[in-house]
Amino acid sequence: MVQQCNTFFRAGFRAGIQPPEIHQIWQCLHQIADPELPALSITDLGMIRAVTPLQNGWRVTFTPTYSGCPATEYLINAIQETLAQAGFTPVYIEISLTPAWTTDWMNADAKQRLRESGIAPPQGLACEKTADVEPITCPCCGSHETEKISEFGSTACKALYRCQQCLEPFDYFKCI
Ligand SMILES: [Zn+2]
């Protein structure tokens, strides 16, 4: 069996096909929520850059949303534990800081879920310098009549807005 696996691996590498475990690992990683944005998983946020099979084990390439963020240590442990529970060991975590994480890596599904949790997702693209295009849309009622109350909301990456339509204050996740 081991022999067969090895043969499969080598054949897969030659053909550029990913072994099926890669898909399972991505699914495991999709279960890990971001501690600061519990509505989103680390894969929604685009923090997992790659999953690579090694001769012995797996390499997960990970980009923290903010370098020095206290969540980074927590997430590294969470990745190790989640994958170990699913039988994937050893796992080597490679931290990739270049290019730096950007809100552009958040997928459309992630933005929708942010909205549902009452946070306005980033508007515009940091890479195209169209970041934070006003007006910011209210995540509660969809109104464009909103005003900025404070540059910093519940965390540094968010700004605090208020909707003039439904009068709800809300966090806006700034483009970075
Ligand atoms: Zn509103």
TrEMBL record:
Residues 24-84 form the MIP18 family-like domain. Residues 129-174 form the PaaD zinc beta ribbon domain. InterPro entries: Fe-S_Maturation_MIP18, FSCA_dom_sf, MIP18-like, PaaD-like, Zn_ribbon_PaaD. Pfam families: FeS_assembly_P, Zn_ribbon_PaaD. It comes from the Bacteria. PANTHER family: 1,2-PHENYLACETYL-COA EPOXIDASE, SUBUNIT D-RELATED, FE-S PROTEIN MATURATION AUXILIARY FACTOR YITW. This is Phenylacetate-CoA oxygenase subunit PaaJ. It comes from Xenorhabdus lircayensis.
